[in-house]
Specification:
Aminopeptidase, OB fold (Dihydrolipoamide Acetyltransferase, E2P), 12-stranded mixed beta sheet, binds the ligand O=C(O)CCC(=O)N[C@@H](CCC(=O)O)C(=O)O, binds zinc ion, hydrolase, AspA/AstE_fam, EC 3.5.1.96, succinylglutamate desuccinylase activity, hydrolase activity, acting on ester bonds
Length: 350
């Protein structure tokens, strides 16, 4: 498709997600201005940059569809973006909207070949000679995000990346956040307050580096980066969008200078967890010993066998240890479940 054709289509029907899904592998660079002065640049399929006439002090990446079957965040972001494109929502901040994996969104699957959210911080290129659409995409997404942050106006600015997901299974706490490892730096009070305004007051504090998008944002871009789990993954058309209203309105306020419904950080308002251990799938024999309807953050009695792999059984080791993200279908060598435990952040937030 030629840039002129793309612009014509977008101006006729301001639905960038639709355009991206109709062209899942490529869209040419194109730019135009809205009547309200907002500059719009299409950088690629699923990648669109919006710059208000007067830039605020935040640079915000809103990402969804890194896993193709997690449709609610895609719908939520598409609605925000379409409101920007039609002039219904006037931005005050620079925003980069990313729909992570358009081919996987079209196919309604988590990934086509590789889990995109295990390929950041250079993991896309760690195996010489191995390529896939997701590896290429991870490399490009890294470059777009860096370009976005680096091209910001001079001055003291706040970088943010919210990577929106939904989880495979239900959760004792419907909405929760993965806060990437900060290498000993304090966790951000202001960000806890914002996450709570999104309806997510359960936060998993990571203790090690990861190959996820949010860790890349935190570590390589020095942004406040988060994976936000907004609920359970369902196909398009089956999401009850009222369950995402709080997150949608907090994000809308964030990018348009609206009033955020935050309350001062108080640890007692949060369920805080840290990772005790990561259980990886080492062979094709890996299996879980509990049912698919067992929710994230469920605890079991000490000694309960939770999973097994060739020659090994994984049991609950301590009181209060809970499961998150159990998934026996991951590739060999990848994390198949996290074991987490409640923790306090006292003295480590500022
Ligand atoms: O429900 C599941 O098992 C997976 C949901 C999901 O995609 N979670 C993210 C978390 C990323 C992180 O650890 O920051 C993922 O597994 O990629
Ligand atoms: Zn996901």
């Amino acid at each position: 498709m030629k840039p002129e054709e793309l612009l014509q289509q977008l101006q006729q029907t301001p639905d960038f997600l639709k355009l991206s899904l109709a062209n899942p592998d490529f869209l040419p660079f194109a730019s135009y201005s809205l009547p309200n002065g907002t500059e719009i640049e299409i950088w690629d399929t699923g990648v669109i940059y919006c710059q208000p006439q007067q830039c605020g002090e935040q640079d915000i990446v809103l990402s969804s569809g890194v896993h193709g079957n997690e449709t609610a965040p895609v719908e939520l972001c598409s609605e925000l973006l379409n409101d920007v494109l039609t002039g219904t929502l006037l931005l005050t901040e620079r925003v980069l909207f990313l729909f992570g994996n358009p081919p996987a969104i079209n196919a309604g699957v988590r990934e086509i070949q590789d889990n995109l959210n295990r390929l950041f911080s250079g993991y896309h290129s760690k195996e010489p000679g191995v390529t896939s659409a997701e590896r290429e995409r991870a490399k490009k997404l890294e470059a777009y995000v860096l370009q976005f942050f680096q091209a910001a106006p001079e001055g003291l600015r706040e970088r943010k990346l919210y990577d929106l997901h939904t989880a495979i299974r239900g959760s004792r706490f419907e909405k929760f956040v993965v806060y990437p490892f900060l290498h000993g730096a304090d966790w951000s009070k202001q960000q806890f307050e914002f996450l709570k305004a999104c309806g997510a007051n359960t936060v998993l504090l990571m203790q090690t580096p990861a190959s996820t998008f949010s860790y890349f944002a935190a570590q390589s871009c020095k942004a406040h980066g988060f994976t936000i789990e907004l609920g359970k993954a369902r196909p398009f058309g089956q999401n009850d969008m009222s369950r995402f209203a709080e997150a949608a309105s907090a994000l809308r306020a964030l990018i348009s200078g609206g009033e955020l419904q935050t309350t001062e950080f108080n640890e007692a308002d949060f369920n805080l967890y840290e990772v005790r251990r990561s259980i990886n799938k080492n062979t094709e024999s890996f299996k879980l010993h509990f049912a698919d309807n067992i929710e994230n953050f469920t605890t079991f009695e000490v000694g309960t066998v939770l999973a097994s792999d060739e020659g090994v059984e994984y049991k609950v080791e301590v009181e209060g240890e809970a499961i998150i993200f159990p998934n026996p279908k991951v590739a060999i060598g990848q994390r198949a479940m996290l074991m987490v435990k409640p923790v306090s952040v006292a003295g480590k937030v500022s």
